[in-house]
Design brief:
By secondary structure, this protein is α+β, with helices and mostly antiparallel strands. The protein has a single domain, classed as Orthogonal Bundle (Arc Repressor Mutant, subunit A), CATH 1.10.10. The chain has helices spanning 28-33, 38-53, 60-71, 84-91, 95-107, 138-146, and strands at 12-13, 26-27, 111-115, 120-122, 131-135.
Length: 147
């Protein structure tokens, strides 16, 4: 059963995900499969990160911010949902530089920025609202690693 605080986590879906390698959505069955094995989930998330870190089109700042998002990834929401200013403190970068790095990650479809209460995928991170950063293609990797 989905806990009360997860009711607005709309990106965990009961049905099939269309084009999962290019989607931030995660199937509910996949999320539940990792409920009691957070260590294995972390291992898969870091595998996903290593694949992204090798992308030459990303600058070093974007890779560092992505590292912070992966480090702060949460099973409960299948997302990373800290404030941009927190990521800035975490990696030692200016908040505006982190904002540009987040925008770069969104533009390259590496992460999705979504709002918790609304079924909205943002094209750029904005102030306010409960933002979550979803790792694009992670749901697909989790399915393939389970089989």
């Amino acid at each position: 059963m989905i806990r009360k605080e997860q009711e607005n986590v709309w990106w965990i879906v009961a049905g099939e995900v269309e084009n999962p390698q290019h989607s931030g959505l995660v199937r509910l069955g996949v999320a539940r499969a990792y409920k009691d094995n957070f260590a294995q989930l972390r291992q898969r998330v870091w595998k996903w990160y290593r694949r992204q870190a090798g992308r030459v089109e990303l600058n070093a700042g974007a890779k560092l911010v992505l590292w912070a998002m992966v480090e702060r990834y949460r099973y409960e929401t299948m997302s990373s949902h800290d404030a941009v200013s927190y990521y800035a403190r975490m990696v030692g970068m200016n908040r505006k530089s982190v904002g540009r790095a987040v925008q770069e990650l969104i533009e390259h479809n590496i992460i999705w920025c979504v709002l918790e209460d609304e079924k909205v995928r943002l094209r750029r991170s904005k102030a306010g609202g409960r933002k979550h950063f979803l790792l694009v293609g992670l749901g697909d990797l989790l399915i393939k690693e389970d089989t």
